[in-house]
Records
---
Amino acid sequence: MSERITKLQRWLDLISYLVGRRVPVSVEDIMENVPAYAKKWQTENETDRASVRRMFERDKDELRALGIPIETVQYRINYGLEEIEGYRITRQDFYLPYLRLVHEASPSGERRPYLLKEVVLTEDEARAAADALHMVSQLPAFPFVAEARSAYRKLAFDLDPEVLAPTPELYVHRPDAEAILERLRTLSSALLARKVVWFRYHGIYRGEATDREVRPYGLVFQRGNWYLIGHDVDRDAVRIFRVERMENVQPNRRKPHTPDYEIPADFRLADHLRKEAWELGDEAPIMAQVLFRFPQSLWAERNGYGRKVEERPDGSAVRAFEVRQVNPFLRWLLAFGGEVEVLSPPSLRDELHALARQVLALHGGAVE
Amino acid sequence: MTAEAQLDRVLYVVAAASCKEGRPLAELAETLGVSTDQLMQDLGEVTARIDYYPAGSVESIRIANDGRRIEVWTSGEFRRPVRLSPLEAMALGLGFRALAAGTRASEDRRKELLAFAERLERAVTTSPPEELLARFAVDDGTPGDGSVRAVLRRAAAERRRCKITYLASRTSQPDERVICPYTLTYSNGAWYAISHCTKRGGVRLFRLDRIVAAETVDGTFEVPADFDPSHYITEGRLYRADEEIEAVVRYSPRIARWVRERGPVEELADGSVQVRLRVADPQWLVRHVLQHAPEAEVVEPVELRRQVARAAELALGRDA
């Protein structure tokens, strides 16, 4: 048996000491009664005492960050003559409330050891919660899978597993998911602590790689890819980066507990969601009109690509697009072969044709 | 192993196993997603001090652990899981918001889901995750207004047959089919329904963005016992194995680095890479090469090279 008290033991001791108390306890009580602190506290050496006090402060902060509701309370002693500060954890705040499905009877006795609130759910709601957690825990390279699973375990504690059976859905992970997860772990920690990150960025069709210094504002999963949105320090503007194209992601490791920056109050992550690659660029927008032949016109309508400006008798449709990045737009259009046609502007049409000629040349076709 | 993760596991195990006869060790380890060794180590730390009395209390926590079952006696605290941590609450909230975003067809359903999410988040967490939810977002790529996916999800969950209007690639007319959706699968940014197709009499993949309309029809189905969605996945891609062709694609030095990350490649002297791909749908490969224009080239088979060339000619408006 080791003499050393591990961090887990210290934390459990501290929580045990505080939980379920009506009357708060003072910091001196904690120092004297929690074994990991008591040893040094009892030496009565001021340096030792100061060091365990600091240890307690750090433990308190870390446990609070984990959601352990250590409450700081002002209370009076000596017949109300003296006000001091104390700590406690109330059961209501600490334990998960009892969850019950609406058609079930409330269980009693052993299964309800404490006086806690009850949350009543419909089956539909319980299934939605299970689906929500199932979805994120399967999401490729999601950096908080452990948290999603742990949340599911807690919610499933009282509920019938049948009701929580998720909808049969499966997310396929690409072979590079592991490498991306690694970068996302670094990026999400930096985002949560608001620390600057450095990385080398390869814009896929944009020539040379560049070194970037970015203040992370948000992380987004969309269209099968993870994106970092942040303030690019050298360009002094908000930019969006595909995590897949980053290399050597390094956070600022100095002063890990002090944020490097503030996120502007008017920044909204939602403004960057549900965007296509050609809508994400920094170029001045070009208005393009594209003809979709039938039945691709149905497909474009069904999936909401562009805005319909005209429907023709043969079932084809003209749709308008706001293009901020030409290259991905052209490559998207090219994949339709002859099913789409750029009507305007002529320059865009020419560029699409130039790209098609390059493909043709590569594949041995006759180029005029 | 961090103390954070250990604390999370220990608090869960104590709550779960503080019942008559406790719980099997293997079951607890599986629920927690760790090895039984790891779990034994966690509990070892708690029980290292044999007569462990929580500080300042007269009640003991006793953990019986015979290597197979865990049983906990505690007359005092920890007989219940703790509330969701901020990051757990964020994971839940992200999932709810993605589900809600996928139901754009029904504003009522969307509002209902978000209202429930907020009610649950307030009830089960220490502090609601609003601030964290402003930093992370997930859009799981539900195409269109989400109505087709909503119909298919429900049908898959309840094993109901569906009638769909499908736009197969390179067809001139949408086609009506009755399908039994076994599972919905997300791959590289697109949703698919792996389904039994009654018209073809076999399992087929249907891209959700190509399903123009869907409704459930009379009749339920059973998923065959030997159905395994992983049979349709290779190297992170979804495909049907019974009609595959093999192709070789060359990627230019410019994009070679991204191709290397995704799987085995053959390095060429000029810095480009070649990849051997098995594909079920040649049209998929034609689109794939066009989307990477002009950095990708079909090397073989010759027939596929012709198809890419033809697609390029059509894009030039030539009736080749």
---
Amino acid sequence: MLTLQINGHAAEFDVPDDMPLLWVLRDVAGLTGTKFGCGVALCGCCTVHLDGQPIRSCVTAARDAVGHKITTIEVIGDTPAGAKIQKAWLDLEVVQCGYCQSGQIMSAAALLAGNASPSDGDIDDAMSGNICRCGTYPRIRAAIKHAATL
Amino acid sequence: MTNLPPPAGLHGPGRRSVLAGGIALVLSTALPAGSRIARAASARFAPNAFIRIGADGSITLVMRDVEMGQGIWTGASMLLAEELDVGLDQVTPEFAPPNDKLYRNPLLGLQATGGSTSIRGDWNDLRKAAAIARSVLVRAAAQQWNVDPAACSVMRGIVTHGATGQTAPYASLVPLAVTLPVPADAALKNRRDWLLIGTSQKRLDTPTKVNGKTIYGIDVRLPGMKIASVAICPVLGGKLARLNDTAARKLPGVVDVLKLDNAVAVVGEDFWAAKQGLDALDIDWDLGANAGLTQAQIVQGHADASAGSGIVARMEGDPDTAIAGAAIKRDAVYQLPFLAHAPMEPINCTAHVRQDGATIWCGTQVPTRAQAEAARVTGLPIEQVTVHNHMIGGGFGRRLECEYVGIAAALARQVPYPLKMIWTRETDIRHDRYRPYYYDRVAAGLDEKGEIVGWTHKTTGSSVMARWAPAGMRANGIDPDAVECAENPPYDFPSLRVSWVRHEPPGLVTAWWRGVGPAHNVFVVESFIDEMAHAAKQDPVAFRRSLLRMNPRARNVLDLAAQKSGWGSAVPKGVGRGVMVQSAFGSFLSVVCELGVSPENEIRLRRVVAVMDCGQAVNPNSVRAQVEGGLVFGMTTALYDEITLEKGRVQQSNFDSYRMLRMDETPSIEVHIVDSTATPGGLGETGTAAAFPAVANAIFAASGKRIRRLPLAAGLVSGS
């Protein structure tokens, strides 16, 4: 049994302790907002926060999340930075297919939470681990800058 | 890049039991989202297949097009709302059930979303459907008030008779409207009365895509559902020879091991258990006839085939004589690689096969084909197969195929429970159906004044059309997709021959891919016209311009792209601008790409300017988004991507070997839309087709190197 604190709720999970957090979230906890894209931390679709830091849940063993606060896309809007990023995403119509956007938003929200006015270089550093196949990068960049003004 | 924790202990064993619902309740439950036609109101006005107006006031658009990011849910809803005289916020789109008769795409001939055809098909069909519905509702109001329908107006779904001040919302008119005859036609609004078309409207699908609430096919969860991970024979045509699943079956969480002729699936309580089980299988494949196949053999096969004369798609004048007598002659071979689709949502499908029927949950661009494939595999009558379509996490043509639905159904028919099959990224890339390899020979001649006197283009490659839609082949055997934008270039050539050699390589299945024919031929035509401009010692924009005298819309976007990009202004050393222009998918697009090439042959994209004339833009911000995204998709592919086979196996597997442009590599992109009242053209694939030559021509401008074989980054290093 592992005790995980997900989105403010502590719960026990009877899973192997090496099961990636991604599958605990999606298949056991039913939180499907966090996406599977590559399985090896190449695309960023599965990004969630561990104590506010963005991590790739597809390569994070569940046991390594014990004792940390896990935050997913479903509640990121409850944080000031997350709410600004979500609003900016809609204001600038960033989203196309949307599949990667949970991960993009989690990466962007973590960036903005720690950096009130990120530069282009900061955005490159924080966001280049997240792939978008629809090609929304220019709007993501603009939306992060817009979020910083909200 | 953000540093991430390393994958700790990924492969150790563990104990598991299924978690009951208690925790799920605390956290959240994601229930499957069916896409059923509106069912709430007992009385509903349904004058045609697209519109349902309930007595509760609900207005449903039954969408024949799937939403996979292109924004069609919003664009189509705007067309409907405009002619129905309701607000966009009053319309709820739903996915149509499979039905080729009711939901046939008029440009494709079946219920399919692809080829950048959605808005082109909906433009007439949905506006007319809505205008007819409006006319019946207005007649109902007029009849109720005993007034002239022509004296009534509608705003936000409320009918008003100005003279008497009487008003009635659509909802109240439903009981009467359902009794009235539905006319075959109704007048469309005047353009000057449009409230929505041509204005940038917020997308309807995006609010739930920013908070994780949208349910894609991969997110479906059903009571009792298990999850399957699949190993498919790595060589096409091979079969399962021997399987030892003893170790896999002992793993916690593993439920079943299922076999197909050419695949094995491990079923688990969750994906991780299934994947662990798959890794524990001991499998021998009978690799079959393609086991020795190499990429060199495949390329040589295309080259050899291209020596044949092929079928002539178009012949104007006598290009061979013209080129033979030309002052300057050029010929070249251009090659484009096999390509995977690699949508961010890996291939998946959930199937529940029972005695009395089957239910399929997935994202598909071809709902009726998905239904038929499940019926074929299960032996059930088509009408006993239900397909619930979902928001698609990237289509790009991949989900115009439905062999994955067949695989899921073939697995699910072996078990009593609903089964969700999820492919790993590696399986998704290695078992894709691929954009064909193309081997193109082009030749042209210039007279003393530097004007083109003749142009020949022979393309060689697989025919997707012949397999996917044989009815689309021309009587003379030409695949129109294979020559699209080659047989009808925007330019006025005095003599021209375009021909095609069909060559079907072994070892893989070819399929539609974003940009289809234009993404192939526009690269060749726009690269080679650039070569001819330089051969004529003319500016690439001026040279193209002189060939566009008969094509004012193409010339206009070219002129504007040159102007907006600062064409001709100084650039730093090692930086160059490439230009292209195309007429494809019913739209006109010109792109200028500015990039740098370092002495080490590293390419740095700097700026892209695009000018789009798509006729009437329905949702201009969405038009810009599609061109931007299409350009990024095309630049990624043009620079980096190819699928190759060795020993019959696809060599690429994940985003390290099939790589994507990332945030720090993406240039600024400006998209300008030409004001136009022409019939709307397609958008989703335009930017992708345009990106290939824009980047290739910019590399030439920056480095003096003409790369004729994609991907360009590899070609720049190898010098080909």
